[in-house]
Amino acid sequence: MAETTPIKFVDLPAQYADIESEIVAAVADLIHKGAFVGGAALTDFENQLAAYCGTKFAIGCSDGTAALMLGLLAGGIKKGDGVVVPTNSFIASANAVVHAGGAPVLVDCDPQTYLIDLNQVEAALKAGKAKFVLPVHLYGNPCPMKEVLALAGKYGVKVLEDNAQAIGATVDGKKTGSFGVAAGISFYPAKNLGAFGQGGAVLTSDENVAKTVRMYVEQGQGDQRYYHDVVGYNGRLHSLQACILGKMLPKLDGFNAARLKMADAYAQRLPAERIQKRTPNSTPVYHLFEYRCDDKAHRDRLVAACKEANVPCAFHYPVPIHKQKAYPQCNRQSLPVAERLADSLLSLPMHPGMTGEQVERVCQVVNSVR
Which fold has domain 14-250? Predict the structure, then answer.
């Protein structure tokens, strides 16, 4: 019977099962109070999140893309400013730059860690093309932030972290999201800490940045109600989502530890050269687990084998940002490492509820395909 137990790519209901009654009771309390916007639920979660991430402030907002945009705006981006962004990422990393009035400067990624290529970051900064660097802690693997910050300091630019996929990860003894002038987090349901819908947050230890972000999410409203200092957005995190996230956050370390255990089990069974290399002195949290095929044809064969064996899989991401139709000005750019990864990476099942036996079954399929 165990051999035919379905393997899930993600298993969201299982993450909530043991505290479902707590979540339902807390939501019911909000309903009875009619406290749907702002209030104690949001404030409590923001304080809880800041303490967990090692920052002085956390400001809830509507989603992860908005969090990055707000971080750039509060960080002082000006119209047309360049922002160095890895092309091997979800398109929101670049879209947030455009929405903030900036211009993405797309660079390639490291062939082993799949993270932003530091040599290309320096080349872009040396050429005077950017005022910000936006490292993406992709798949839950932290970027080498000591090196990123050193480059930023050398060229006098700011760092905004894309921490959408890596909440709880550490590098050099610090949590991701606590290094730059600010960081953006996503609480999309499938994330390691997921809401029951959309949600996001900006992390920062800069009081002025925090104040500016709060102003932008409240339609640009300053200290006095109905007095607006900038053209802002209706970008709040709903109190219902904050309430749910506040119940889930204490479980996050356990979730991440389970993901890391499953990643270690994969690593014991798969060739080292085919999986993402961890950043030195880091603890990743494996939002996704990537397997690198030889090429697209190899990946197609593996996808077919997975389908035959009822093993779910997915692509993250099949088209790098510089090849997207949304960015025609970048389409002729050659970023070969990301282009190869787009054709060869396959996401394998990864969630806290996986078992070692399920990992073994997945690896048997993966290792059978050449």
Answer: Aspartate Aminotransferase; domain 2 (3.40.640)
